[in-house]
């Protein structure tokens, strides 16, 4: 009987302690909730402090407006660039399909002797057709790359062979063009296939 009484007393103490803890937590939460309201009330009684708060809010709103305007401007610029690129490179596939035709016309010209009376008219006709085609593709932003004697550029040229520089030729320059390259509005759509003079050995550079 005594043991049961002690257990009951212990449980009662625990309940009382838990109740006190809950009351303390509620009191702390109430104080936290009342603090901003009290602060606002205090500010409302102080015109100078209220002015500072308003100025701070205006500053934050102005900064937010500036950030929003900058984001909108960046989005507009990106969209304009996408539209501009779409216009510039819309004919990329068509231009690429034209290149074999141009190659064929140039090859035909190189194999026909313009001094031969039997083929003179044919040569002139092919030459006129090629010139007309080149003028047209240039009008739409295409540029032919024929980099003989120019420094080797891996961005627009593909070296199919590298040989020792002949006398009078600089190392790492294009000696011969196997197939001409093309750019479209500054973007390479086909690298030129070239033979390049070997660069100088590293020990000679030092």
What is the CA-CA span between the terminal residues? 104 Å
Q: What would you call the shape?
A: elongated
Number of separate helices: 5
Strand pairing plus helix content: what structural class?
alpha+beta
Low-confidence stretches: 1-9
How many strand units? 6
Give the percentage of residues in beta strands. 15-25%
Main sheet summary: 3 strands, antiparallel
Would you kindly provide a brief summary of this structure?
With 206 residues, the chain is α+β, with helices and mostly antiparallel strands.
Descriptive overview:
- By secondary structure, this protein is an alpha+beta fold.
- Helices cover 63% and strands 15% of the residues.
- The protein has a 3-stranded antiparallel β-sheet with strand order 1-4-5. The protein has a 3-stranded mixed β-sheet with strand order 2-6-3, with no helix packed on it.
- Helix 3 (92-111) packs antiparallel against helix 4 (120-139).
- It is elongated, with a radius of gyration of 41 Å.
- It starts with a helix and ends with a helix.
- The model is unreliable at 1-9 (pLDDT under 50).
């Amino acid at each position: 009987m005594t043991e049961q009484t002690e257990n009951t007393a212990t449980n009662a103490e625990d309940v009382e302690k838990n109740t006190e803890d809950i009351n303390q937590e509620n009191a702390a939460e109430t104080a936290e909730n009342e603090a901003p309201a009290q602060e606002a009330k205090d500010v409302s009684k102080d015109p100078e402090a209220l002015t500072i708060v308003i100025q701070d809010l205006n500053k934050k709103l102005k900064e937010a407006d500036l950030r929003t305007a900058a984001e909108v401007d960046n989005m507009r610029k990106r969209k304009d660039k996408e539209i501009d690129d779409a216009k510039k490179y819309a004919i990329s596939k068509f231009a690429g399909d034209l290149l074999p035709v141009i190659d064929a016309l140039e090859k035909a010209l190189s194999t026909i002797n313009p001094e031969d009376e039997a083929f003179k008219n044919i040569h002139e006709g092919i030459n006129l057709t090629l010139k007309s085609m080149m003028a047209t593709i240039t009008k739409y932003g295409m540029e032919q790359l024929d980099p003989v004697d120019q420094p080797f550029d891996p961005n627009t040229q593909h070296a199919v062979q590298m040989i020792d520089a002949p006398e009078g030729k600089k190392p790492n320059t294009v000696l011969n063009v196997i197939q001409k390259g093309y750019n479209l509005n500054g973007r390479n759509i086909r690298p030129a296939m070239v033979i390049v003079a070997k660069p100088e050995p590293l020990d000679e550079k030092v």
